[in-house]
C-alpha cells in the first residue's frame, strides 16, 4: 500500500481514492484528515524509502 502524507488517518488512502473504507480499528468510515504527527511520520518514511543515500 502506498501511503501519501495526506492519506486518511485510519487507513492511509489518499483523499481522491477514498470512498467508504473499512478498517478493523475504525470500521466503515470516510476520509479523515491525518494528524500532524501522522503527516510528519509519513513524510519521513517516504523520504527514507525514496531518498538518495550517499
Ligand atoms: Zn480511511
Give the percentage of residues in beta strands: 5-15%
The number of helical elements comes to: 1
Physical arrangement of strands within the biggest beta sheet: 1-2
Written as H for each helix and E for each strand, in order along the chain, the element string is EEH
Morphology: elongated
How far apart the termini lie comes to 27 Å
Mean pLDDT rating: 90
E-strand count: 2
Q: Summarize the biggest pleated sheet.
A: 2 strands, antiparallel
- Spans with pLDDT under 50 lasting ≥5 residues? none
Helix share, percent? 25-40%
Give the names of the bound compounds: zinc ion
Structural class: alpha+beta
Please describe the structure with a list of short key phrases separated by commas or semicolons.
binds zinc ion; alpha+beta; 54 residues; two-stranded antiparallel ribbon
Describe the structure.
The chain is of the alpha+beta class and 54 residues long. The protein has one domain. Helices cover 28% and strands 11% of the residues. The chain contains one helix and two strands; from the N terminus they run ββα. A two-stranded antiparallel sheet has the order 1-2. Strand 1 and strand 2 form a beta hairpin. The N and C termini lie far apart (27 Å). It binds zinc ion (ZN). The site of zinc ion (ZN) has 8 residues, from loops.
List the helices and strands and how they pair.
Layout: E1 21-23, E2 27-29, H1 36-50
Antiparallel strand pairs: 1-2
Bound molecules: zinc ion (ZN).
Zinc ion is lined by residues 8, 10-11, 13, 18, 21, 29, 31.
